[in-house]
Amino acid sequence: MKKAFLLVFALAVFTGSHAQFSYPKKITTADVALSAIGGFSGALSYQQLYGIGKAKRFKVGWGVRLTSFVGKDLDYITAPARLTSGETGPQVLFVENVLSNLDTLKLSRSQTNALNLAIHLEYSFRKLDVGFNIDAIGATFGAEQTGTFLAKSTDSRLSGTQQSAKPTVFNLLLVSDNDLGSLNSELYARYWFSPKTGIRLGASFQFTEYTTSQNLTFENDRFRNKILMPFVAISFKL
Hints:
mainly beta; Porin; 2 helices; 11 strands; about 10% helix; signal; Outer membrane protein beta-barrel domain-containing protein
């Protein structure tokens, strides 16, 4: 996430002085994206981006995105930062995981539908855009699933038991494992092959999270799967 932001910002700094093309102050788009490998997801989104500075090549904006994710035989690992890192706060981004605290909820099937507000950064080179976006806040819905809980601790009486879980309802972007719920982010390049239509290619990094119906080992009920998938999308200017 941090590297993607720095990449887009660096492009703005190093090439902004060579602007000769007239870029719009505001661009509104709708987008359909498909991601696969390790899981499958489809995303529908609407976004508005605003040009910054004299050239308007660097843009920031907001959007709304519905991401539906489907997976089979996935491992959901202990989610809260207080367990994965042994602490909370922004510094967890630089702290190694406490492996002895990481339990697993194995789900044979998972399906989440996350509706989130998203943050967008983008830089344009005439018909080519490069950008990054990330979900910030929203809600997730989906059906209850049953999976096998495996505890790292050999003393846990719950290890090997069947546990029911539902998608965590509230989504919130914080920092690393401080995040809550299911969030999608994309690093991409887009080419406008006509004035109104473009194709995007890139990588989608998705968090999906389930909450068990009871507290398990370490009084934890939240488990998360993280997956990086290539995606292709088609964009329409509105």
